[in-house]
Specification:
By secondary structure, the chain is mainly α. The protein has one domain. Helices cover 74% and strands 0% of the residues. It is built from nine helices and no strands.
Length: 187
């Protein structure tokens, strides 16, 4: 039996253990809510994890579409990026898959072919981590830009209210070109 066949056969169990491991990174109250609430609208985070971990697992086992992998990573990483996880914590969900798969492979026996295929799978997981890092950094960059813009707007509004700055009237050079008193027209 190939590694791919073994993992496809055990996919549901692997996904369940992987989801459990990911949810363990959250506080107990959040973890209970994510597990208990099945409605995707009441629990969009839990639903996204459940759906996208399954998609990720499928793409890692049988790589077919790098864009599908990236889209699944994007949905999970966006959630973790705004939750103020450190980058290592935010992306750790991918590394959690390795020991789960290793245990499934070890339970299947010590076949050398499985071990070689496991190395290839490990490389694919590492590639997914690198893609997730790109997504994570893009999300955090956007988040920081949004926060900086929000702070600039708040400071500007406070300064305006305090009378320390005022709006500068706009100058329309085209309407004043004909004016003989315009400073640029005097010789």
């Amino acid at each position: 039996m190939t590694l791919e066949e073994l993992l496809l056969q055990k996919r549901d169990a692997i996904k369940a253990r992987w989801l459990q491991a990911v949810l363990e990174s959250y506080p107990p109250d959040s973890r209970r809510f994510f597990k208990k609430q099945k409605d995707q609208f009441a629990n969009p985070v839990g639903h996204a994890f459940s759906t996208e971990l399954e998609n990720l697992l499928q793409e890692i086992i049988e790589p077919s579409d790098p864009e599908r992998l990236r889209a699944s990573l994007d949905r999970i990483v966006r959630i973790r990026a705004v939750q103020e996880f450190a980058p290592s914590q935010g992306l750790s969900f991918l590394f959690l898959l390795k020991p789960i798969v290793r245990e499934v492979v070890t339970d299947a026996g010590r076949d050398e072919d499985l071990q070689r295929e496991m190395e290839a799978l490990s490389t694919r997981i590492d590639g997914a981590v690198l893609a997730a890092l790109d997504v994570y950094m893009t999300c955090r960059e956007k988040l920081y830009i949004l926060r900086a813009d929000q702070m600039k707007n708040q400071v500007s509004a406070l300064l305006r209210r305090a009378g320390l700055i005022s709006e500068v009237p706009s100058w329309d050079a085209a309407s004043e070109e004909g004016s003989e008193n315009h400073p640029l027209n005097s010789t």
